Amino acid sequence: MLSTMSPAQPAPGLGRDEVLGPGLYVHVPFCHSECTYCDFYRVSYRDRAADAFLDGLSLELDGLPRDLRPRTVYVGGGTPSALKVDQLERLLGLLEPFWLPGQERTFEVNPRSATLPKIELLQRAGVTRVSFGAQTFGASALRMLGRRHGPEDIGRVYGLLRERIPSISFDLIFALPGRSLEEWDFDLTSALALRPDHLSIYSLIYEPGTPLAEAVGRGEVEPVPEGVEREMLLLAVSRATGAGYEHYEVSSYSLAGHRSRHNQAYWEQRDYIGVGPGAWTTLGSLRTMNAKDLDGYVRGLRERGVPPRLEERLGEAERLNEHILLRLRTADGLSLRGFRERAGRSLEEHSGGRLGQLVSRELLAADGDRIRLTLEGLCVADRIIAELMA
Amino acid sequence: MSEPAVDRSRIRNFCIIAHIDHGKSTLADRLLLHTGTVSQRDFQDQMLDDMDLERERGITIKAKAVTLRYRRPDGEHTLNLIDTPGHVDFSYEVSRSLAACEGALLLVDASQGVEAQTIANAHLALEAGLTIVPVLNKIDMAAARPDEVIEEMVHALAIDPGRVHRVSAKTGLGVPELLDLVVERIPPPSGKEEAPLRALIFDASYDEYRGVIVYIRVVDGAIRPGQSILTMGAGRRYEVEEVGIFNPKMQKLPALRAGDVGYLTATIRNLSDVSIGDTVTDRSRPATDKLPGYKEPLPMVFCGLYPTNNTDFERLRYALDKLRLNDSSFTYVPESSDALGFGFRCGFLGLLHMEVVQERLERESGVDIVQTAPNVTFEVLVRGGEMIRIESPTQLPDPGRIELVCEPVVRTTIMIPAQYIGSIMTLMEERRARYMRTDYLSQSRVILVYEMPFAELITDFHDKLKSLTRGYGTLDYELVGYSPEDLVKISILVNGSPVDALSFICHRSVAEARGRKLLKKLKEEIPRHLFEVPLQAALGGKIIARESIGALRKNVTAKCYGGDITRKRKLLERQKEGKKRMKSIGSVEIPQKAFLAVLRLDEEK
User: Fold this and answer.
1) Fewer CB in a 10 Å sphere around the end CB: N or C, chain A?
2) What's the pLDDT tens digit per position in A103-133?
3) Rounded Cα distance, B164 and B321, in Å
4) Closest partner residue to B553 among A203, A230, A385, by Cβ?
5) Nearest neighbour of A361 by CB, restricted to B531, B553, B568
6) Confidence (pTM)
7) Chain-chain contact of A325 with B560 (C-beta, under 8 angstroms)
8) Residues of chain B positioned with their CB less than 8 A from the CB of A375
9) Would strands B11-18 and B103-109 be described as parallel, antiparallel, or unpaired?
10) Could you tell me which CATH number the domain at A316-388 has?
11) CATH architecture for residues A23-267
């Protein structure tokens, strides 16, 4: 059952999460360098700006409900590890009031800026999980992406993390221009050899407006052909699942007990609260985004106690479309009965008969009450989801 | 009610004939201003109204017939300026407007020179016995080459070079003298006021409040409110409500007499009840003969119009009904297509007419429309000797029943700069055209005359002509008859099912090449699906070409976390919306552009 809007409604199988509130996301918008593919909100790291950000964050966190009991805390960015040691310490201090026993606490960490003192800080603060932005083992590919670390940093920092943090997630990107299927196999094999608890495997997306997308527009960068990209995706699935990882969402693979609880909450349409510039919050049918403007964020909090925000009201149609979008991306799939209860009609009816067609083309598999993407369907999941939307 | 009638000898009825953009409306505006028919201020106000599309009902400065009062030392003259449609699609309408006049200003742009339309309309005017006043416009422009253009006029139309009058409609230069030439060269009307009423209907428009407004030229007799009238061609009876002139607003008069140009209203509800070219007479004292030249407008180009969404059928019908109130020359009958569902087969006078109607239809109804590629009418002789007229490729009988298929042939007049003769002759050969003759207008400009299948002309010919001549080529055509040809129907199969709306009729010699090209075009236009989509072209039962649209291989974005959900959902919702505007046939979504692909077979990607 998927209805999740209030923390009072327990979801089965989630243990002590049942009584806890929405997930808390903290956006740290600083990076030492700009990755050419990234379209998240971030600015170049500057000491004074980082202090001002922490001032603003402190005010924003003060404004959260006193009794907020986040099931998970996720600190992302940007690059949280770009903060200096004392700033990182201050950040952890600001979050401490929200610490609860048994909570999943994730920090995004980058191989270049994660030094031993910072990692030890995270360890002492009880961070349970890091998401490690390795991306690729190819030196020239890392340079093309605008990453400042080299392949040699990956193993070294991974070793430091492994000894200190209980659960490590490893990020990889495929379909990098100029990188062959064999080289991608090398990346996969190298990552699996480290035996991380979790893998996030992304295909490179040319987000409009990013330096990389513009280079493609100018003809300077040649994207990997669609057929090769597909082979790369299928190779990732087979290598990771072959090594014992559960493929539980389009881009997510985990060893037993290491699914990302924070991310799963997004896919279950649970509430979440985001703080920091550019962070999103969804509470029931209200979705807001803090403006992507660090100065405005700090000023707004200082002067009015709230950052400038954009607001979106989700109607039932939007929520249903998101339900299809998010549930189908997971291995748990979509419950037909759950859908009918929400929508007041079956998914077959909702999709104008397309569900049946997709099942008969073996792009979707029906297993009793559950509908899931097949391997073939995974490769074209976006189109399938668009077909099912009303 | 007894205003003295204007002296008949002081009336002049004339029109302006010109190629599009040669300054016809600017000159008309200038004539209105100079005669004080409108003031400079009214003129600007009116222009504003025009832009707002909020024109006061019944009047516009662009009225189809404006009465100008022109004062000269020998007294006041009444000049009736009658508008003519410029385009060849409306040549019948042009001929009726000309029939309401005794003279025509033949306006030629001093830099552009004589164009195909200029010649076609000038010939119509000469055939109608009109006095031509040749006028060279835009002589103030830097690019003007008056001497060369006058030479072209002499060559093409046998005009006396000494009688060409030079003006600039934009600045008003030469306009007062032009008004004098209208009075001096164009003869006054010659009708008999005592004779039984005969008035020519040369145009009509629909007004929400007054019903149909009929534009008439009284040839003989007089017409008054209260009079019982009869239209001699269509045989309809009415009682006249009001008569008057456009000044430029509608101005009521006690009567219109022989030689006058103006309007009548008579509680006529439907524009289709009024036939352009028909003769109005008095029921109690009818004329014996109607005025010559009346005929029903005959659509020449047909296409299917279908609502993208089948539930919009009634809305589309309503929109067509409404549009026909304003334009009685297009036709529509319901038809159904296996591929497109229920829609209408619509007939138009020509390609431009088709575009005009469609544009208005979409703008005014808000219904998303799928248009099939236009086709011409064919005459088919079936076994047993019956001749049938078909308006759509799907109506073509089984090959076994066909004795003969005839297609319409048009005489095409093409005017081009001389350096393009070679490339245009090659184009004409590809289009199965038969060479008739070449006329040199001057050393640099040429008229080519061909007879060609009309079907070849409606298939992207105009764009091709323009691109081969860097925009300088112009074209005119007229129907000369039907000719038997070896014509076959090509059927198109998408994903194994025939899509009737994509089928077309062409000459057997080009069938295979066209089939192949069409499939290539369709491959570009139809987006990839989750499965492979085979495309086939068939002649009779035989596949003559095939193509395949490969399946989508990878289409999945990686991240979908808290900040990605809204954007991702909107992206997919937009995809979904885009698909809704396509026509779903079987399980294949076909965009509107694909149905017109057959028109653009010569385009290279």
Assistant:
1) N
2) 999 999 999 899 999 999 999 999 999 999 9
3) 46
4) A230
5) B531
6) 0.68
7) yes
8) none
9) parallel
10) 1.10.10.920
11) Alpha-Beta Horseshoe (3.80)
